[in-house]
Structure formats: C-alpha cells, structure tokens
Amino acid sequence: MGFAHFHPLVSQPSPRTILTQIQPHNRKYLLFTVFIAGMSTLALEFTVSRMLQTVYGTSNLVWANVIGLVLLFLTLGYFIGGRLADRNPQAATFYKLTLSAGFSAIFFLLLTSFLLKQTALAFSTLNASVLIGSFVGVIVALALPITLLGMISPFAIRLAVSDLAEAGRISGQIYAISTLGSLLGTWLPVLIVIPQAGSRMTVILFGGLLFLVGLFGLWSENRASAKSYSALLLILIPAVWLWGSGPLKPRADAIYETESAYNYIQVVRQNECNFLLLNEGIAFHSFHCDDGSLPGISVWSSMAAAPFLKPIENWHPPEKMLVIGLAGGTIPNQYLRLFPDLIADGIEPDSQILEVGKRYFALKDPRIRPIVGDGRFELNKTAGDYDVITIDAYRVPYIPWHLTTAEFFSEVHSKLSSDGVVTINVGRVPGDRRLVEAMTATLLTVFPTVHTVDVPGSLNTILFATREPTDFENLAHHLEENQNAADPLLPAVLQTVQSGHQPTVSGPTIFTDDIAPVETTVDSLVLNYLLQSGISALPSTSP
C-alpha cells in the first residue's frame, strides 16, 4: 500500500476553514450567558447612573460621563477579550470571565455606594478633597466589571465559531442576543427593580445572576475549578452585609428616603418642619411645618403675588391655577391659604413624590388635583382657562430645556384665562444674569409684559409674564389695600416681591425647540461662580 495522494479537485478541510481546536460545549447555554451578560451591562450602567444621581445630579454632563466611561471600558474589554479568546479558546475560561464580572459588579459597585456616602457627607460639609477623591473612586470601581463584561461577546464568538464560513452568521447571532439582553437590562432596572428594591439590591440581583450563570457553566466544564471559584462567596457575603444596607445618604436629620423611577427622594426634619430633598440634595423642593407656619417668605411664597400684578380695578381672586412641578404641594398650599376657593391642578412626573407629599407635606387637600406626567405633555391635555400657571420644575440647577422655549410658552399662553399670569423660577449667580435675561427674551416673544423679581437671600429670580399688558405699580396698590389682611402671609409676600423688583432686561438669546442651550448656560454660570467664589459658595441644606 502506498501513501494516499492528494487530489486537487477534492475539497479538503484546512486549519483556516475548520477550527478543530474548539472542544464541543453547550452552545445554547453559551448563548444564554451572552444574553445575561448583555442584560447585566445595561442594568449596571443605569444603576451606576442612579448612584451618581444621589450626589452629582442628573444633568447631561453626568449622563455623558457615565455613558462615556462605560463605552471606554467596553472598548477595552472587546480588545482584551478578543486577544484572550485567540490565545486560550476554552469554555472554562469564558465562564470564569462571566462569574468574575458578576463578582466584581457586586463588590466594586457596592463599594461605589459606600464611596458615594462619603461624597454625600462631603456635599454637606463642602469637603472638596473627599468630593474629588470619591468621584475618582467611582471611575475606578466601574473599570473592572464593565471591562470584563466587554470581554464576553468576542470570547463567545470565538467559542461558537467552528467553521469560518459561518463566522458572520454566528457573530451576528451573538450580538443580536446580547442586544436583546441589553433591551431587557434597560427596562427592568429603571421601571421595576430600582423603584421596588433600590439601586444596591439591583446591583446584587444582576451581579448575582451573572455570577451564578458563570459558576454553573464552569461547573459543567471543570468542577474542581468551579469549587475553587465558589470561594469568592466568602468575600461577597460580608461585602453585601457591610455595604448593601443602611441609608444611601446618611444625615442626622433624615426621616425618610426612597428611590423612585425618576429620583432619589429624601425627607429631612428641621425645627418642626419637613423638607423635601431630591437627588444630589443641594436645594429644598417642598416644605411643611407642623403648625402651618412658614420658615420665611420663599420662592414658593413669592409666586403667590402673581394675581396682584393685575389692576386693582375690577380685580377678582384666581379661581383656577396650574402648577408645573408640584413636588410636595408647597405652592398650591400657600395659594390656598390666600385664596380658599381656588382649584389647583398640579403636574408631577414622579408618582412616588406625590405619595411622599401626602405623607409628609400635607398634600391631601381635595382642592389640589395631582396629575402624573410630563409638564409640557400634560399641559396640552388640560382644558386650560387658568388664572395662574406656575413653573418650578427644577432638577437643580437645571430647568428642563423643553419648559423654557418660545413654543412652550405659546402653549402656556393658550391655556391662560384672558388676564392670566405665568410665573417661572429661574436661577442666577451674583453678577451673571444670562439665564434670567434669556428667559426674559423668550417670554417676551409671547407675552407683552414681563416683571423681574429677585427673591431675597437666594439665587433665584422669579419672572412674572402677563397675558395682558400690566404695570408693576399694580402690586403696590394691592399692598396698600391689604396691609391689614386677615392672613399676614399676604402683605408679607407683597412686600417681599415689591422689595425684590428689578429692571426687566432682555438678553440676546431666545430659546426655541430647535436650539435651547439651557444646560450649557447653567454650567457656565456655575463654573464661573465657583472659580470666583470657591466651593464654599455652594448652597447647603444643613441646619
């Protein structure tokens, strides 16, 4: 017998076509693992953003940082995962990566939660070194779990492809399954898990699932190795116990906290009064005192002056108002003190805030009709004919841009009564009124008159825009007539607003639905202010 001869017309397998070094393994379970990894990646991204939200807020800058860091670490993971898969294309290695990603997600993101507690304390004490150090710590905490998750897809493709002729189909299948998992990872934590269980439990649930899926896969490949890796539970259990419980933002005066689909919500108690804090907690959003008293004439109180900008002749109290940014109901409650026959509709996107308002801020008056939804969308669904519309929908220090445009104010105009007034709370810093002037210019494209009032002792300016031309002297006439009003709140409000009156200045910028650089303007204001005054100039909610 001689050697078999190779015939060039007969198709022969070659190392470039058949990847014979890959051992058979459970492809369905591999695809399931890819699905869980894709789901966990987006779930952890949203959870990290929620953790940052408690301290740094929800601006576009925060979201850009989170998304940018996640993409950076995923890119690194794709690169390393592909190279590792070529060097060591073993299913056991793939599952080790998976369970390591789950382990690091739980360990490092719970550590992140602990670091953010220190950052929250730094915000209260204005300790810049702790603030910066904790943010760096958050970046470091993201690096390992997200990079490991990025390694999973290219590694799975290397394991699943046995014939190069199918490489495109297999890789497309794996990326499709991973993306389907990401869709679930987008909806589940935001809509269900975080509001029901909190951000830390979300980390434990998704990281734990990833760990168990990887451990089970490793068990099917190498039981001895799986037993060794299961020892990581001895580290996870105390980490969960130490960092997975307790308040997210410890404060001595805090009496309640929760996480909703939109916000981190905290209630603090000072001097027999409850105050509502949201997210980073650098400003109060509502208050209620046990005896019904007021800590002072606030932004919300000052808004009650709106009806008194109309001429005193044939004046009538408002019968119907709309509040965009209801929160705990402070604005309508103060209006109702002055106008008992008033009906107040209030729009608030976060239903959990409304529940907190009922429990801690006396948001129980049947004359207040809460509406759950976005301010602009729900405004356009109302019947209109409001005597007053107030807008105080801050995510400090930002006003949602779609509530600042000429088109939005045209919609507001259409919902006012013939002599109605709209009032909006606008932020400023000493020596820089660019946002106030831009908002004034935008309002003047729709309304004939805009009055400007700086609230004493704050960085807030209230703009009053009237549907009919008005004179600010009207308020002085009402003040004279109401000096001895039954409720002392009325003359106090009118006096405060009169003393804070400023010239109305229209700036060169007009916000539109096409271009509304609200966040850019606010970021510039805040940065310049901090460079001039230092971090100690930030407002504090400490007693």
Task: Give an overview in words.
This protein has 2 domains: 27-243, Growth Hormone, Chain: A; 294-537, Rossmann fold (3-Layer(aba) Sandwich). By secondary structure, it is of the alpha/beta class. A hairpin with a 2-residue loop joins strand 2 and strand 3 (273-278). Helices cover 52% and strands 14% of the residues. The strands form 2 sheets. The chain has an 8-stranded mixed beta sheet, sandwiched between helices. The protein is elongated. The protein has helices at residues 27-56, 60-87, 91-125, 128-160, 167-197, 199-221, 223-229, 233-243, 299-303, 330-338, 351-360, 375-379, 406-414, 434-443, 473-481, 489-499, 518-533, and strands at residues 254-259, 264-270, 273-278, 284-289, 320-324, 343-348, 368-372, 386-391, 416-427, 449-454, 460-466, 501-502. The chain contains 17 helices and 12 strands. Mean pLDDT is 85; it is low at 1-24. The relative contact order is 0.09.
